[in-house]
Amino acid sequence: MKPRNILGFLFILSMAGLVYWRIEREPKPIIRTAHPPIQNTVEGQLAELPVSFPLSLTDSSGRMVSIPAPPQRIVSLAPSCTELLYDLGLDSRISADTTADDFPPEAAKKPHIGGYSDMSVERIIAQNPDLIVADNAINKQIIAQLSIAHVPVLVLEAHTILEVYDTIRILGRATGQNAEADRVVSGMKTRFDAIRKTVGRAISRPRVLVMYGTDPIYTSGPGSFQDDLISVAGGRNIVDRPAAQISSEAVVLGQPDVILCDDSIKDKVAQMPGWKERVPAVMNSTFFTPSSDSTLVRAVPRLTKAAEELAHFLHPELFTAEGKPAPLYTAPQKP
Amino acid sequence: MTSPPGNRRKYFLPLVLLIALLFGAIIADVWTGDAEATRTVTPMRIVSVLASHLSVPGLHLPPAPGTVDTIVWSIRLPRVLGGAMIGMLLALAGVAFQSLLLNPLADPYFIGVSSGAGLGAAVITLLGGTGLLAGFAPTLAAFAAGLAAVMLVYALARVNGRVPVQTFLLAGIVVGSALYSLTKLTVSLAFRSGEAYKATAILTQLLGSLNYLGWRDVGLLLPFGVIGALVLGANWRELNMMALGEESAAHLGVDTERFKRRVLVAGTLVTAAAVSVGGIIAFVGMVVPQIARRIVGPDHRRLLPTSMLLGGLVLVVADWLSRVYLQGLDIGVITSLIGAPVFCWLLRQRMVTMG
Prior knowledge:
The complex is a heterodimer. Chain A is an alpha/beta fold. Chain A has twelve helices and twelve strands.
């Protein structure tokens, strides 16, 4: 066979493959699945787990982690992990965190083992930790490298609010702070319930879109805590399937009333072709940005604060100026 | 310089065919979009939107809903037309550089112009100045950096006051790689500064993407395209003479060094416009002029328009393929995946010609 015949054959083969592939598949939306299906929650199972050290427990990644004694030198590899450690009152036992840690403000004063892109295994090991806490979403690579360190690595990962509760309980168990963990979780539940109760009176449920970037448009769909927050706050996510991306056309069709995004990309969002004349959130400039002491992107208890702010933003008529639920309308008493 | 009638027919048939194909591809590309939108954006409504915007007389169609109007007129049409223009500009630059350097490898990507322009636009993104100068800042930076890259290549390749073609190409590859590394540095810096959205913007630009082109971008491409096409078109005679070799061209009265500079600046200008809007889209500038030469021959009076049409066609078809089969994959990836095997095939067929 001459080379030109082989090339021609390959070309025809690939074209046939394309056509076959096209016929075989239903047209699919330009949306990629972001998360695996939600795993079974460990809530309820924790009560039976051992309380005293040494202990073994299963972390979010499904691995068995053995911890010989209550950890005293904890290294955190992600801002969310650092926050959880502070929330559990482990302030004095954190020996190092990352340069990206900005909450609580004291976290910035701890020694750092690097940032998102320049984390160093050497610096982690040099801290001589007895527990390393990592977030699977951002620490995947370094978690694999840390197996050489012979230090227990606790991997946390939360996609939904329920999974946030789980990670708090797992961390509480691993550090011997069970009571604190239960207190933090029930505190979160109480606040979320209060918001649900208040927005339950709302007549409308505004359409909401979360955006992390404009090129491509990264977003959050069902199965994410951002989606949970939107429904808690009395909104409706226009992304109705688990997705990490959405097309510009789908946004125009979805007609979001409010866009949740960072201040830094607001201008770019307003400049998306066609949005200024057709997307309500851009037409009315209704962008929601969480305040500096709340968060939309970290799986931490501060999510409750973001939910309160969002509920207030979506349903201002239901709240007083201070953000407290407005008093219910009471009929004037007959004299 | 009039052509015999037989030759003329050989030229006009492909030209008409290419124009028809380009129109067909544009229609097909406007037809297809996000699968979620296909139920709402029906062919009838597309026609209705286009008719109402172009105020076609005698056509009275039921008006389309506002969302459909926005999707067709503000999202799809500028993307497709912008894509076609980027393809035309890249092909134009390819013809210019290939003729100038008498080398089929001379496309804007390989002689360092694309890398320079990409770096210029990336630096503006990193500094957060994409909106400056009415949105022209990235293009002007791309032009400045692209021109600086070419001048550096020119200076490096200069031997005894002349610029031998082979040295020019080598210098281009070296400078291009260095500038590409600097672009990677801007990505790294953007990640480290915690502004990940800037890093993804630069990465998208490195991949080459037509997503989210608006009328603003089309308006930005148009003047550069017109200037570039006019300058190169006005020099078709000199481009033809250069194909005979630099010495022969000089004997025929071409001021070769001045001519080289003029064509380099024009080629850099069109490349910078294309790169600042669509990112680095490889292989179009290299392969399209080769194929156009097979169709209409080496005469630049015909080669320039044919290459432009073919370049536009290739990019619109690639965009359509990306939307129908590949979930909107970035176009630079597709042109490389298609362009490399096509170039290999041309090479095996001994179809790659100098100049």
